[in-house]
Amino acid sequence: MVAISETRDAQHDPAIAIPGHATSGIMGAVGGAALLIAAIGLWLWPGASWDPLLMLVKMGLSLFLLCGGMMFLMAARRPSHPEVRLDARRGCLRLIERDAGAVIREIEISYDDLSEVDLRDGMLIARDHHGQAVVAMPVEHSGDIDAIRAALGPGFARAA
């Protein structure tokens, strides 16, 4: 639910926000942990018989659960992209890195410090005058590309 004051601020804010990945790794971590516990619990649960064919099926199922759990845990640990705010009025690009909702680091870069901003194949890449990539992140919504170009202004119209 959005408060009224936040709605007014969002309407009058000239900056465009490009959010990083909003997916949380919590669900992947919980799912991965559950699969790992199930793989171990399969062997701890008392069985009715020690039939070799049943043991082979249990081993195959436990390997499948172990691999699936590890894949979920590895996917939950992927790094998230920073949030990028483009402010055409102030002529700056702001990078906001978050961890669990809290701002870790905030960097403001002037458009004068950028030599090119490339918007191709769903990727936003901003480079400084030395050719180093300052920002490289996917743009998830293709409808945002025109708004990004407008926020960058005419100086980057040819590069974007």
- Low-confidence blocks of residues: 1-12
Average of pLDDT: 76
Taken as a percent bin, the fraction of beta residues is 25-35%
What is the CATH third-level topology name of the largest domain? PH-domain like
What is the CA–CA distance across the termini?
35 Å
Q: Main beta sheet, described?
A: 4 strands, antiparallel
Oligomer: single chain
The domain tally reads 2
Report the helical percentage.
25-40%
**SS elements, strand count:** 7
Shape: rod-shaped
Strand order of the largest sheet: 1-2-3-4
CATH class bucket of the largest domain? Mainly Beta
Order of helices and strands: HEHHEEEEEEH
Write a structural description.
- Strand 5 (114-120) and strand 6 (123-128) form a beta hairpin.
- Helix 2 packs antiparallel against helix 3.
- The chain is built from four helices and seven strands, in the order H-E-H-H-E-E-E-E-E-E-H.
- The strands form two sheets. It has a four-stranded antiparallel beta sheet with strand order 1-2-3-4, with helices on one face. Strands 5-6-7 form a three-stranded antiparallel beta sheet, with no helix packed on it.
- The radius of gyration is 24 Å and the shape is rod-shaped.
- The model is unreliable at 1-12 (pLDDT under 50).
- 39% of the residues lie in helices and 28% in strands.
- It folds into two domains: 4-20 and 80-156, PH-domain like (Roll); 26-76.
- With 160 residues, the protein is an alpha+beta fold.
- The longest helix is centred in the middle third of the chain and has 25 residues, at 52-76.
- Keywords: Membrane, Transmembrane, Transmembrane helix.
- The chain crosses the membrane at residues 26-46, 52-76.
